[in-house]
């Protein structure tokens, strides 16, 4: 009895390993899947898995199935470096999709560079990221573009002149703030004050009380949604009547549950109702699978995984060749056509993507009436 | 500005005080820093949320059930994780406490997901968002009044329990000398369970109040609140209940004034600097008694 069990187990192992060994293509997706920013990672995970499922349903890459490795790094630079080291040492990995947070990407970049391992970030918008390494690409716009775009928008579309800034002490937030301030100064907007908070702050009343005295038209929050939602609530509790706006970091459905966030507007790389026909199928499939509308994290990751898969399909499992292929997508006619539009790269590995403005009306994200092009 | 900041500081401080009491009581009785206490606070917020959203229970009923559940979780935590280590080296229990904290966080992540949740507005008592007092530019909402009143009321009740009841006397006896207390016929384990239940209930109340006040709850919310409250307990003198209250309020006010008047970037740094300064000049904390080493 015992013997036959062992034989059976051995047989299962043999058959099993024969079925799996070496005929999947691993595409790691590095993002925070647990921890305080895990809610962003959810969109990343869903977008990646949906794309992999579609690729596999269509026969995989050159007959091989795609396997998404979800690498959790908590949006923590130290963890991101660990994950990057692990991936750099894995011979089966030829391209990485990640990371989400700019701080994490900046920490991982030198490790990928040393290992000559190309990476595509679907969400890191810090201006210095792709410049720092020939192996880093992204399919999202940069903060200098995003920050300047916001300054243009409040000036031209809304006519707000007095702005207070409430930023988080991290790479993403500071890069965005600096870009905004530079453009705002050019336009003669008044920056009344800049206050900072750390990622584990939950009480923002002291800084808000300070802002209240200054009577700004609006408060700019170049941070992430978990803190953003607390900031707008606490401002309301202090009886402040100001506008709020932020960047892609505030683009999270948690904001919709907050009645005080009515009227908040943000930049976004992806608007479901403004997306082209290409995107409608993706939105439908995503809704069917997960029961919610895809956010921009999901859309950008979906495209990043598609881009990675296409590169492997074209040039095979070779890090350098994949990198060179990505770098060769350098004009609109060579671009990868995805659900977020056309992705092609400049000499740094940055891409040009349009930015849209959406706002919260009646507890829903809707396209802002005025879009700047 | 000054008055508004003071109100802000007292609100934050009151919550710290509620959590800090749980740390200090458990420490007083078994000399263990219960690092999973922050997660009990988080469970208080989440269980209330769960009852309101899934079972449509009225807010105050949900809150009471959540507090009772957290009391039970506190007792079980002690029985499962700490009791077997009662006579083990202290570090073993400390590591276990940290392990339990991570375990609880992940239970919540699995059960409720990573997304920030907020209480549905219609479920909350409507008076919460009304303004109670307005002096010039300063606003105090009924919710803030409610938080401060609840904190004071619970502190008073706690003081009464510790100093006016039999079980309170037993707690104080165990804090002095566990073995002697047992020899006098005190059921040590039962009293420790009671201490955990009491501390956990207060932690749960703090979690619910914070969840309502900030209108946001998430599975890792207990971590930083726990660290802050632990600092408050140390500041007040670990093991001293009035000390924990005072420590919480001092820490809250220091933090808010530091952020409002000095630099918001160093806000946490300022709070901890205040704590370190106190510890340097008075190692036993604000109201702690100098321990006499028993030989």
Q: How many extended strands of chain B? A: 2
Secondary structural class of chain B: mainly alpha
Hey, which two chains have the biggest interface?
A: A-B, 38 and 44 residues
Number of helices of chain A: 11
What this model shows, in words?
The complex is a heterodimer of chains A (373) and B (295). Chain A is α/β, with parallel strands linked by helices and 373 residues long. Chain A folds into two domains: 24-141 and 276-343, Rossmann fold; 144-268, Rossmann fold (3-Layer(aba) Sandwich). Chain A is 44% helix and 18% strand. Chain A contains eleven helices and 14 strands. Chain A has helices at 2-20, 38-57, 77-88, 102-114, 143-158, 171-186, 205-214, 225-237, 277-290, 296-315, 319-328; strands spanning 24-31, 65-72, 96-97, 119-121, 136-138, 162-168, 190-197, 218-221, 243-246, 265-268, 336-338, 341-343, 356-361, 364-367. In chain A, helix 8 (225-237) links the parallel strand 8 (218-221) and strand 9. The N and C termini of chain A lie far apart (74 Å). Mean pLDDT of chain A is 90; it is low at 11-21. Chain B has 295 residues and is mostly helical. Chain B is 73% helix and 3% strand. Chain B has helices at 2-30, 37-55, 59-82, 90-112, 142-164, 166-176, 178-183, 188-214, 221-236, 241-262, 267-281, and strands at residues 131-135, 138-141. A two-stranded antiparallel ribbon of chain B has the order 1-2. In chain B, strand 1 (131-135) and strand 2 form a beta hairpin. In chain B, helix 1 (2-30) runs antiparallel to helix 8 and helix 5 runs antiparallel to helix 8. The longest helix of chain B is centred in the N-terminal third of the chain and has 29 residues, at 2-30. Chain B is globular. The model of chain B has no long low-confidence stretch (mean pLDDT 89). At the A-B interface, helix 2, strand 7, helix 7 and helix 8 of A face helix 1, helix 9 and helix 10 of B.
């Amino acid at each position: 009895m015992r013997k036959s069990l062992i034989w059976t187990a051995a047989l299962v192992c043999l058959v099993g390993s024969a079925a799996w060994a070496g005929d999947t293509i691993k595409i790691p997706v590095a993002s925070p899947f647990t921890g305080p920013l895990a809610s962003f990672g959810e969109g990343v995970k869903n977008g990646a898995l949906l794309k992999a499922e579609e690729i596999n349903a269509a026969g995989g890459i050159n007959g091989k199935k795609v396997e998404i490795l979800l690498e959790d790094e908590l949006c923590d630079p130290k963890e991101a470096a660990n994950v990057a080291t692990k991936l750099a040492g894995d011979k089966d990995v030829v391209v990485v999709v990640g990371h989400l947070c700019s701080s994490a990407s900046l920490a991982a970049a030198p490790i990928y560079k040393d290992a000559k391992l190309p990476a595509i970030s679907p969400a890191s918008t810090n201006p210095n990221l792709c410049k720092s390494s020939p192996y880093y690409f992204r399919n999202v716009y940069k903060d200098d573009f995003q920050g300047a775009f916001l300054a243009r928008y409040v000036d031209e579309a809304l006519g707000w002149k007095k702005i207070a800034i409430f930023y988080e002490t991290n790479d993403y937030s500071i890069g965005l703030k600096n870009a905004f301030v530079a453009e705002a100064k050019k336009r003669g907007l008044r920056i009344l004050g800049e206050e900072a908070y750390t990622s584990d702050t939950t009480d923002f009343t002291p800084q808000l009380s300070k802002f209240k005295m200054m009577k700004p038209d609006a408060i700019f929050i170049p941070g992430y949604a978990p803190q953003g939602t607390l900031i707008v609530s606490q401002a309301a509790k202090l009886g402040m009547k100001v506008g709020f706006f932020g960047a892609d970091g505030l683009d999270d459905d948690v904001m919709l549950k907050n009645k005080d966030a009515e009227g908040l507007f943000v930049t976004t790389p992806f608007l479901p109702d403004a997306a082209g026909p290409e995107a409608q199928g993706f939105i439908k499939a995503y809704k069917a699978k997960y029961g919610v509308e895809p956010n921009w994290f999901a859309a950008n990751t979906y495209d990043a995984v598609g881009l990675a898969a296409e590169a492997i399909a074209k040039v095979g499992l070779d890090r350098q060749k994949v990198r060179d292929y990505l770098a060769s997508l350098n004009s609109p006619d060579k671009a990868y056509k995805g659900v977020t539009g056309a992705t092609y790269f400049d000499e740094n590995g940055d891409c040009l993507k349009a930015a849209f403005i959406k706002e919260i009306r009646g507890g829903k994200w809707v396209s802002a009436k005025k879009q700047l092009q | 500005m000054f008055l508004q900041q003071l109100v802000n500081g007292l609100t934050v401080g009151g919550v710290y005080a509620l959590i800090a009491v749980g740390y200090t009581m458990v420490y007083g009785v078994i000399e263990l820093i219960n690092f999973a206490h922050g997660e009990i606070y988080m469970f208080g917020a989440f269980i209330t949320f769960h009852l309101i959203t899934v079972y449509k229970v009225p807010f105050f009923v949900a809150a009471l059930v959540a507090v009772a559940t957290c009391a039970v979780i506190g007792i079980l935590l002690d029985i499962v994780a700490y009791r077997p280590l009662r006579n083990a080296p202290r570090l073993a229990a400390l590591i276990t406490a940290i392990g339990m904290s991570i375990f609880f966080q992940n239970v919540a992540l699995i059960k409720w997901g990573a997304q920030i949740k907020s209480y549905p507005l219609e479920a909350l008592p409507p008076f919460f968002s009304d303004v109670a007092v307005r002096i010039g530019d300063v606003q105090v909402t009924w919710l803030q009044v409610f938080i401060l009143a609840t904190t004071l009321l619970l502190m008073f009740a706690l003081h009464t329990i510790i100093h006016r009841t039999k079980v309170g006397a037993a707690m104080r006896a165990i804090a002095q000398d566990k073995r002697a207390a047992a020899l006098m016929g005190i059921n040590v384990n039962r009293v420790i369970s009671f201490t955990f239940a009491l501390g956990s209930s207060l932690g749960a109340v703090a979690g619910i109040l914070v969840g309502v006040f900030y209108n946001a709850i998430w599975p890792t919310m207990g971590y930083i609140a726990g660290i802050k409250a632990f600092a408050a307990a140390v500041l007040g003198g670990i093991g001293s209940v009035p000390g924990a209250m005072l420590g919480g309020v001092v820490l809250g006010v220091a933090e808010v004034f530091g952020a409002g008047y000095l630099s918001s970037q160093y806000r946490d740094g300022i709070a901890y600097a205040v704590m370190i300064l106190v510890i340097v000049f008075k190692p036993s904390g604000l109201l702690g008694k100098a321990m006499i080493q028993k030989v």
